[in-house]
Amino acid sequence: MLRASGLTQKWVQREISNFEYLMQLNTIAGRTYNDLSQYPVFPWVLQDYVSPVLDLSNPAVFRDLSKPIGVVNPKHAQLVREKYESFEDPAGTIDKFHYGTHYSNAAGVMHYLIRVEPFTSLHVQLQSGRFDCSDRQFHSVAAAWQARLESPADVKELIPEFFYFPDFLENQNGFDLGCLQLTNEKVGDVVLPPWASCPEDFIQQHRRALESEYVSTHLHEWIDLIFGYKQRGPAAEEALNVFYYCTYEGAVDLDHVADERERKALEGIISNFGQTPCQLLKEPHPPRLSAEEAASRLARLDTNSPSIFQNLDQLKAFFAEVISEGEPLLLALVPHRQSHSFITQGSSDLLVTVSASGLLGTHSWLPYDRNINNYFTFSKDPSMGNPKMQKLLSGPWVPGSGMSGHALAVAPDGKLLFSGGHWDGSLRVTGLPRGKLLNQLSRHLDVVTCLALDTCGIYLISGSRDTTCMVWRLLQQGGFSVGLAPKPVQVLYGHEAAVSCVAISTELDMAVSGSEDGTVIIHTVRRGQFVAALRPPGATLPGPVSHLALGSEGQIVVQSSACERPGAQVTYSLHLYSVNGRLRASLPLAEQPTALTVAGDFILLGTLQCSLHILHLNKLRPAVPPLPMKVPVRSVSVTKERSHALVGLEDGKLIVVGAGQPSEVRSSQFARKLWRSSRRISQVSSGETEYNPGEAR
């Protein structure tokens, strides 16, 4: 299954991250969050938990990934080897093993997650109704690592939460975990290394360590131990990596154990002792390309534009096209899961635009074309220039407010456009690229004010003036989106004012909504259960929550407004919450936001004061100086390759932000065959016209 997935090749070529690859390996090997005895396993990657600054360029700060955690201290190797060689079972049923414990088991997971429910209750249940001795609890990262160095019997590896979930390091629920015997110090939050200023900082630096060049170079050695050829047999014996026989898949056939007591005993051992993942490889895992080798390979292939987030110091804005003269561009988006047949590999994608008048454009977009040798190629929808052929979203719209970018969403495969804001309170479905109205659903009691789709293309969430949100399932046929189910799968309640913005993540089972009274509510998607209500900090009179976005790890980005008293100046703020609704950071804004999106580890924010801001997601700090525009920004999106940002402006222009220096434009450019077509295309923009706002800002 691993070979068929192509994941190893993607990882080797640095197309996916170390974290993502490890999660995929765990999943394929049968590890799951739903079974504590088969919980996903991750490696200890660092051994420096005492320095004031973590220097990831120094190999000495990293753990030796070629050795099992039980012998990461070289002094333990001889002890472990002697134990293995001297072991002999008189009954002859138990094979020799190096370790009498396991690197991943239910007790170990509860050990790390003791401060987070339901693991707290599970831990107490395991310990006969009380917490374990404080000294044996997970109270310090440095102490946990030191325990691995001091005892070959403590072989616990890490869990994925160490790389994305800061909440488990804090005793937010105030559990009485006792006091340490030697120092009489009360156990509360986990004591972090000196190089981490807070749990968020620890997670960020730990994640950077996992993705570092050293770990990338040596991670295949750890994979060989846990999932690969050193998991079993002579190679495992030589690597000092043999565990108790019951932990291995297929070692015990419970169906042929006749004695009920013996069977239950074996089941208890397998469940509580830990289970070794399924063996995925029987030959050495290939190493990962170095960063230089991967860059050289991409340069040879010459098929990709550089990522804007990896080249923030080289950002440039380019004028692409006037989509609709003088009309605000409310949506400019390249759906990120468009499919292409084998024959049309390298063909253009669909770029969807919607103007304030409802004018729909379905343009051609190519982020890179070696024939043109430039940033991007954009071909304007020819129907937009012909009044008889123009595609218009059907109105009428709500009097006084008109169309809103919040009430527009495009299916990830680019087959459907969903729209709200209609006077009759309907949610309408329009087919793309033809622009034909396919359906209209009237379930809300008032106007639909906002829409959002999950990245998987499974669910759409709608918010309304009637104070409710509804979750709708997208209908699929032949692998393509064809419409919405006639009834919502969930109706979410809790707001006391009109819903102003929504966001949804099927993977994280989160539906988040903001309202005109400044409240943010989190529900689950599958069951529609209320999780939490958040009220962003601010002045005395909270204003509406204008923008919401979700990060890939459940970070909630909220943009709110407030004022001190009626008639006072409105202030704007950006807030970052954890997946569990805990406030992590706040940032006062000097400009009024008009568009917001999250891409990877960055936030893109467009403002009424004609700027595009790029911020670090986990810190809410500027990543680069703002990019100036001539007029206010009305929409922002990032292309699927993260090679460009698409910015829609108040005057109807589409601006494309890319990275690097543009190539020289050849005079014969427009006569060249484009997208394997012999026809000449007149309305083409190819990144050659740099957008310069000059003094007009």
Automatic annotation (TrEMBL):
What subcellular compartments does it reside in? Answer: Endoplasmic reticulum
Q: What does this protein do?
A: Probably involved in thrombopoiesis. Plays a role in the development or secretion of alpha-granules, that contain several growth factors important for platelet biogenesis.
Main subcellular localisation:
endoplasmic reticulum
Instruction: Answer yes or no on keyword Repeat.
Output: yes
- What Pfam families would the database entry show? Beach, NBCH_WD40
Q: Where are the WD repeats?
A: 441-474, 492-533
Instruction: Tell me which domain of life the UniProt entry assigns to the organism this sequence originates from.
Output: Eukaryota
Query: What are the GO MF terms of this UniProt record?
Result: protein kinase binding
Q: Which residues form a coiled coil?
A: none
Specify the BEACH domain's residue ranges: 1-288
List residues traversing the bilayer.
none
Question: Which example biological process does GO assign this protein?
Answer: intracellular protein localization
- Similarity comment text for this entry: Belongs to the WD repeat neurobeachin family.
For this UniProt record, the keywords arranged alphabetically read as follows: Endoplasmic reticulum, Repeat, WD repeat
The UniProt record lists the keyword Endoplasmic reticulum: yes
| Protein name per Swiss-Prot or TrEMBL | Neurobeachin-like protein 2
- GO CC annotation terms, alphabetical: cytosol; endoplasmic reticulum; membrane
